[in-house]
Amino acid sequence: MTMPVAAQTAASPAGQPIVRPATPADDAFVEELQATAFGPGRFARTAFRVRERFPIDPSLSLIAEVDGTPCGSVWMTPISVGGVRGYLLGPLATHPNFRKRGAGKLLAREVSRLALERGEGAFVLLVGDQDYYCPLGWKATPPGNIRFPGPVDPGRVLMLAGDENLVTAVKGAIAGFDAGA
Ligand SMILES: CC(C)(COP(=O)(O)OP(=O)(O)OC[C@H]1O[C@@H](n2cnc3c(N)ncnc32)[C@H](O)[C@@H]1OP(=O)(O)O)[C@@H](O)C(=O)NCCC(=O)NCCS
Q1: What would the pLDDT profile of 152-164 be if each residue is shown by its tens digit?
Q2: Using the 8-state DSSP alphabet, how is residue 138 labeled?
Q3: Domain 5-179 bears CATH identifier 3.30.950.10
Q4: Which residue's alpha carbon is nearest to atom 9 within ligand 1?
Q5: Quick check: CB of 125 below 6 Å from ligand 1?
Q6: What is the CA radius of gyration of the chain?
Q7: Which pLDDT score is estimated for 40?
Q8: Residue 167, number of CB atoms within 10 A of its CB
Q9: Tens digits of residue pLDDT in 54-75
Q10: Domain locations along the chain
């Protein structure tokens, strides 16, 4: 059996990041964190355009904390590609004062585990650095297979899936979750 997020929170050693579900009280922190991490250019990013079209799932918004202080955040957007349902991960950010403690990887792993465990979506897509995400299980998709509503570096379109065949098999434009099979 997998451990719920709340149970992991309780067992956190001092100084180590834990994750918990975000609440509306975290909204201001998350907004400020995303502004710090991505700057004003964040609104022009292609992944942002996806989130403009399709809403994030608030129940898959997580906060990382160190000793009770929020330090990181991740969001998930339910999407589909070519009739296959999945999720777009991002933005993922850790506050500069709390980097290199494992918060970013913990957030990426936990939000993906929670999403895929639901059994409603088959993959977690993101636009990011292979060096960061591939050790966590993400794999590069074939260039051009997945079409975004704007330019993306094809080498940064990465997918995590229980069925690894999906990494090469999923093709098409990003659509809403409800457009999935
Ligand atoms: C990327 C980011 C989320 C990492 O957060 P973090 O909490 O420091 O991550 P972790 O502690 O889990 O991992 C840190 C490790 O990843 C490495 N790393 C960080 N960014 C990396 C990148 N883009 N590519 C490769 N490695 C990276 C760090 O050097 C560090 O390595 P070390 O463990 O050998 O020292 C954070 O740097 C951030 O918010 N950056 C700005 C926003 C951003 O780029 N988000 C990702 C968009 S896809």
Answers
A1: 999 999 999 999 9
A2: -
A3: no
A4: 104
A5: no
A6: 16
A7: 86
A8: 19
A9: 999 999 999 999 999 999 999 9
A10: 5-179
